[in-house]
Amino acid sequence: QAQLVESGGDSVQIGGSLKLSCAAPRYIASFYCMGWFRQPPGKEREGVAAIATDGRATFTDSVKGRFTISKDNDKSTLYLQMNSLQPEDTAMYYCAARYDARNICDLTFLASTGNWGQGTQVTVSS
Length: 126
Description:
Number of strands: 11
Helix content: under 10%
Oligomer: single chain
Strand content: over 45%
Largest sheet: 7 strands, mixed
Radius of gyration: 13 Å
Order of helices and strands: EEEHEEEEEEHEE
Structural class: mainly beta
Shape: globular
Number of helices: 2
């Protein structure tokens, strides 16, 4: 059974917004580096955003200024707020988590995790 469970994916118009959620076990939300990756149709998986336990966030250049990553430790839930959505954002979005004793928590570090959610589909119409 999945430890990370994404929700919130939908089909939206260009310029619209979506907020994705990732429910996680409390120990993961409290102590792990977490983030989001996506896989557009016909392409490889790519990093989107990561957030460290102290709140420090990193983003891939293509989403800077449009996406926000946040985490509610009380609800044990990770979020990705996506604004000004474009067709290029169409992808399956995956939640990821990795224990991070050295507080690295960038997308290269997170990409090596073996802990992934099952994905939620985001489709942006033209």
